[in-house]
Amino acid sequence: MKPQLDLIRRTVLALFLREMKTRFGKYRLGYLWCLLEPLAHISILLLLFGYIMHRSIPSIPFPLFLLCGVLPFLMFNQIVSRSLNALDANQGLLSYRPVQAIDLILARTLLEGVIGTAVFLLLLLCLALAGQNIALDQLPALCGYWLLLLLFSFSLGLLFMLLGHAYPESEKLIPLLIKPLYFLSGVMFPLALVPAPYQAYLLWNPLAHALELIRHALVTSYPADHVHGSYLLLWTLGLLFFSLLFYKGRANALRRS
Q1: Structural domain spans, the chain
Q2: Where does the ABC transmembrane type-2 domain lie (predicted)?
């Protein structure tokens, strides 16, 4: 068992290093894009909605509110969207016996998780130095919600990879389904401001629970009565179980391809 785990670890690490070089090696600014992309995203939203939203959500500074929405969503989006073509982009590697299809998603999730976490902590530190009041007394809860979001993204990415392999047409359809999540997950607005009849529909989305819980973990005065960690946990475990079951069922087809 131990040699097998060691082989998986070394395989995923090698794929992680390859993904890191492929992702940023072609850009002149290299790894600086990790910081520039979310920073530009947050800056534009601050310019467009800063004054209005600052008055609408006094319980949390709007820059911190955006940081806790944009960064986790970008991390989620990168994992699931880049999973669709993971098999096509790495067909040559799958000819090597140690490399399994699930290793590709593990490596991509690990890369995006490391990047997302590092950038989130760096921008969080910048906000703290700028005078924003950030509570760290719920740090274990924050780490738990962040890891649940990563596991949820991995599970959905694995499912999308398998769907893309089984049904090539889904590679056109799935990105169209992901894009509305940006507006349905509370990235730019708090769900507490949404009228109750419509809020109930948005709360079917587990991603919305993850973003709201991350905000509440950093600012305890931020309202979070409408979201539940147990709902996010059940969705994550259920999706992980279904994805692994689907992966096992597609194992022979993946080997033949």
Answers
A1: 2-256
A2: 29-252
Taking only the tens of pLDDT, the chain with its 257 residues reads: 566 677 777 877 777 777 777 766 665 556 677 777 778 878 888 787 766 666 667 678 888 888 999 999 999 998 998 887 777 766 766 667 777 888 888 888 998 898 889 989 988 888 888 877 777 788 899 999 999 999 999 999 999 888 887 777 777 788 888 888 988 898 888 888 888 888 889 999 999 999 999 999 988 888 888 899 999 999 999 999 999 998 888 777 776 66
Tokens at 214, concatenated: 């991350």
Neighbours of 44 (CB within 10 A): 10
Contact 69, 186 (CB under 8 A): yes
**Model confidence pTM above 0.85:** yes
Is the CB of residue 20 less than 8 Å from the CB of residue 34? no
